[in-house]
TrEMBL record:
Gene3D superfamilies: von Willebrand factor, type A domain (3.40.50.410), Zinc/RING finger domain, C3HC4 (zinc finger) (3.30.40.10). It comes from the Eukaryota. The lineage of its organism: Eukaryota, Metazoa, Spiralia, Gnathifera, Rotifera. This is Uncharacterized protein. GO terms for molecular function: zinc ion binding. Residues 128-162 are annotated as: Disordered. Pfam families: RSLD_CPSF6, VWA, zf-C3HC4.
Amino acid sequence: MTTLNISQTSNIDEACSICLSPLTQRDLDVFTTTCRHKFHFQCLTKHIRAKNNQCPLCGTRLNSLVNILNCSSTITTTTTNKTPLAIRNVPIQEVASIQTIPSTNRKNTWTKLTKSLSNVFRLARPTSRISNSSGTSNASSISRPPINSNNRSFRPNFSNQNSSAEDLIDEKAVRALSARIQAARQQYQAGDHESPLITLTTTLEFGGQESTKESNIYGMVTLKAPSIFSNIANEKEIDELHVPIDLVCVVDQSISMLKVKMPLLKETLNYIVDQMGPLDRLSIISFNTQAFDRSNGLKLMTLENKQAIRNAITNEISAVGGTLIGSGLTIAIEQLRNRRTTNPLGAILLLTDGQDNLPHDYTSLIEFLPEDVTCHSFGYGPDHNASLLSQLAEQGHEGTFTYIDQVDAIGSSFGTVLGGLFTCIAKQLCVKLEFDQDYKITHTHTTYKYKSKDLPSEQLTFNMTDLNADENRNLVFQLSVPIIKSLDENNANNNIIGHASLQYIDTYSNQIIHTPSVPFILSRPNQVDPQSSLLQINHTLDVQRNRAETSQILKRAVEAHDYTHAHEIIKNQIEKIRSSLSAQDPLCQQLIYDLEQQYSNQREFKTIMTNMYRQHGQERATYSTNKTTSAAHYMTSGQERLKMKFVK
């Protein structure tokens, strides 16, 4: 039987695992369950009112308390039976236990119970629990409390101690692998393939503007990453020739992962173990309201360690308890912050199918994530908090967010992200734009961060965390074009108004690469014929403008409180794409198709649109539901390969 603990606990270090506050607090009752777990009574009743009828820590059903709470909404008695109705409806064996309490204590227990219920649900105390002569009751009914929209700030407590369980990397072996990769790239280049360097191109909306008029036009910088020797290497060589990574998988093991979800999650984790090379390091952390280090730190993926982690996945992870995402993230970030040695790449893969028992703001936690590590989040099913997971990915150095709507898509979703990580060719990219005086950047249309004093500005630097093989990045902006003094005809037709340059770290060699600057060219004749080719809109830029604006529109729609207004925003964007020069482009047609989809409810709409605006804002593929197809435009060969290797 679940019993109310009348005496306050004396252990001041204990905390309620629902709200994470100390158990011992003035005016807060402590409740001990049959499974011997302690919670604030108010927190536990809120937990049950949210249709969670199991212990948040171990999953034991709380039948006694559930019955009491279900009946407490109509607390009443009759003149012939003074036993409260809530107690009379409890199963017989549980009533017998309650009745063993002396009458005075029983009265005090019931008083304390109803007082706690009143505190939890902010009710007026019943003026009488005995009906009047007319048979009507003065008892109040219990209603659901208002939801508090203010999220608690999650403040981590890091040990700042190096992990003795960490396997140290073999730096000599990493350098040898880097040399092998460099040799393979040179061989690939010698076979008349593209340069192994990232290429940079510049584009303006028009070829020219009259020198006697001011205007505002669109501009774009495009980064194109090369392929990586896929045509000359066999499967075994491709598996071996990826840059070593430190990977931490943080996975939800709460009670909601029962039945079919947990076996598929374990299968996915085993699949990840299989893909890791001997120089990669892996850590597996599972969480409910607590966190569990299943691998005992970052482990090199030797055959012995792989088997040990497989055993831990099979035998130690089980679905039980509530949800606290921060518990798992804290251990993951601590492991990565305290590394004594580091691989060239680092990432966190976070999966949950639910929300915290109480909402939290993890902004202060994610700020501790090392700069060379990205956080990729996965929300499974309809109950996760897409806004929170998307925010964690965005704040986690431009990681991806993936909405997984089907159980059997978990593996391919992880495979798609893993395929990108294994083919990362550049990190810490800086794209610098410099325009001549009076040509000023006025707006940007990209999710990537930029450095500038203020806009408008002649200079701007975009920063990106990484770039994978076969990927493109199109950075769209607007440019103010000034009136200038007349030029002679030769200079007017070849007028360089600015330059773009790129700097990044090559992940294979760990060297800083500087690419040659590329000019922006805009003709500035005194007059331009309206039919001149100089005034024809650049088709490629128009496609990317539609893509970038669609991403921004989707984010606005997701953040809109009014569902009708959100649909109106999207409807206007559809019409804008249809009226554009590039409306018939395959990507634009896919965007229109996806935007026209209908959703059964606002939650589904927001979740899928969050997934979509992240995909198009980053120009990076992740798993998509069958309602959207446009993100397939960004799928790379490396992602496709790892996705297809997952065998259900």
